[in-house]
């Protein structure tokens, strides 16, 4: 059920310094007809964009998102209100401020895709997986955005705000 | 029974049933009503499908399925969730075909909303203001200007609302009619819950969420 699209040059929006033309890839994964994920992964080189390895990675990431339901891509994407609200909840439960900080750390690791333990290799995080692959391939693999629908559940729409466009 | 009934052969019923997918008795009735004209009978069934769909429109759809479509050209992707009443219907080939068709349609036709009701008042007013300014510039009387604006707004829905768009694979019917024909065939209410459309390299994405259930409860 995984379909992967061909790489497409992303138009330069002029804010890039130095201008890097990133290639975009779309992949979708449907789990048992009830959970669907679509994501856009970016890289720099054409060779990587056309490689089977990138297709494999994109498929793995879509499956990961279907299974773990992250809410955001990176920590920087989490809105301040969400953090404050959660901190308030933890403050009521926990005694010390260290406990609150520890719980917040756990909370962010749970909801941010890049900080989650990768489902196929739980010793590393998704962020580490991307960094490793980027090193191996001499590229810079980033996740641009994803959307996750599950029947009977609220949807997740996540856009990477910190990624260079 | 009228004599025309005798003119309907089993082969005709079979043909209509294969082409429309409608239940056997509906096909027979359709042929009787239209005196054996298959094309007319298809129209008759479609109308019946619409009325069945209207009757079932208030029924809760909490089951369903999610499907994706990545355009062959590679730059457009769609994720869509369509709901029905039971898991049983969600598993049928008919339902799967429908949701696949809807996903492809969204990739091609680029709707921004599911239904008219989902269009935000801001988006609507903004468009209306533009049309009004254009019409007023022609120097026509205000009543005529309003008529022109109304006419344009009907097209606005056709352009931006999935259900009002002409179905890309069969432009003679709207997506709403396509769904209604499946409602008639499967006997369950069917609704498009939400969709997302990504285009590689485009900064914005379309995310359309529709929740008829909440409105039904509120009424």
- Most extensive chain contact? A-B, 35 and 33 residues
- The unreliable regions of chain B are 1-5
CATH class of the domain at 3-70 and 124-159 in chain A reads Alpha Beta
> In what range is the share of β-strand residues of chain A?
25-35%
Question: Regarding CATH, which class of the largest domain in chain B?
Answer: Alpha Beta
Share of helix of chain B, binned: 40-55%
Task: Report what the structure shows.
The complex is a heterodimer of chains A (165) and B (219). The N terminus of chain A is likely disordered. With 165 residues, chain A is an alpha+beta fold. In chain A, helix 3 crosses helix 4. The longest helix of chain A has 17 residues. Chain A is globular and about 55 Å long. The relative contact order of chain A is 0.19. Chain A has a domain of 104 residues: Elongation factor Ts, dimerisation domain (Tetrahydropterin Synthase, Chain A, 2-Layer Sandwich), CATH 3.30.479. With 219 residues, chain B is α+β, with helices and mostly antiparallel strands. Chain B has three domains: 54 residues, Helicase, Ruva Protein, domain 3 (Orthogonal Bundle); 113 residues, Elongation factor Ts, dimerisation domain (Tetrahydropterin Synthase, Chain A); 37 residues, Orthogonal Bundle (GTP Cyclohydrolase I, Chain A, domain 1). Chain B contains nine helices and four strands; from the N terminus they run H-H-H-E-E-H-H-H-H-H-E-E-H. A four-stranded antiparallel beta sheet of chain B has the order 1-2-3-4. In chain B, helix 1 packs across helix 2, helix 1 crosses helix 3 and helix 5 packs antiparallel against helix 8. The radius of gyration of chain B is 21 Å and the shape is globular. The relative contact order of chain B is 0.16.
């Amino acid at each position: 059920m995984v379909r992967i699209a061909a790489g497409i040059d992303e138009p330069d929006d002029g804010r890039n310094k130095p201008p890097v033309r990133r290639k975009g890839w779309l992949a979708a994964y449907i789990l048992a007809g009830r959970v669907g994920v679509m994501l856009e992964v970016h890289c720099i080189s054409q060779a990587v964009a056309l490689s089977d390895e990138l297709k494999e990675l994109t498929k793995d990431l879509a499956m990961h998102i279907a299974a773990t339901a992250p809410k955001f891509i990176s920590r920087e994407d989490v809105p301040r209100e969400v953090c404050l609200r959660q901190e308030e909840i933890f403050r009521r439960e926990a005694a010390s401020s260290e406990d609150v900080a520890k719980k917040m750390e756990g909370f962010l690791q749970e909801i941010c895709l890049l900080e989650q333990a990768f489902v196929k290799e739980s010793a590393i995080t998704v962020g580490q997986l991307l960094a490793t692959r980027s090193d191996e391939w001499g590229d810079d693999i980033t996740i641009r955005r994803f959307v996750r629908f599950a029947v009977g559940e609220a949807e997740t729409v996540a856009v990477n705000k910190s990624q260079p466009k | 029974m009228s004599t025309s009934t005798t003119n309907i052969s089993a082969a005709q019923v079979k043909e209509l049933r294969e082409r429309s997918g409608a239940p056997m008795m509906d096909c027979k009735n359709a042929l009787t009503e239209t005196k054996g004209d298959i094309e007319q009978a298809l129209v008759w069934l479609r109308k019946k499908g619409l009325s069945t769909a209207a009757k079932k429109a208030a029924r809760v759809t909490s089951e369903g399925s999610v499907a994706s479509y990545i355009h062959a050209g590679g730059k457009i992707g769609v994720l869509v969730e369509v709901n029905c009443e039971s898991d049983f219907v969600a598993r049928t080939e008919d339902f799967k075909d429908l949701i696949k068709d809807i996903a492809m349609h969204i990739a091609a036709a680029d709707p921004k909303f599911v239904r008219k009701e989902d269009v935000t008042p801001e988006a609507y007013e903004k468009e209306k203001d533009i049309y009004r300014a254009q019409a007023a510039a022609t120097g026509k009387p205000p009543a005529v200007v309003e008529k022109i604006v109304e006419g344009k707004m009907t097209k606005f829905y056709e352009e931006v609302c999935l259900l009002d768009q002409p179905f890309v694979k069969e432009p003679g019917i709207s997506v709403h009619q396509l769904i209604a024909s499946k409602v008639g065939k499967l006997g369950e209410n069917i609704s498009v819950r939400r969709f997302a459309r990504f285009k590689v390299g485009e900064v914005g994405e379309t995310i359309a969420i529709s929740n008829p259930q909440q409105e039904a409860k509120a009424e």
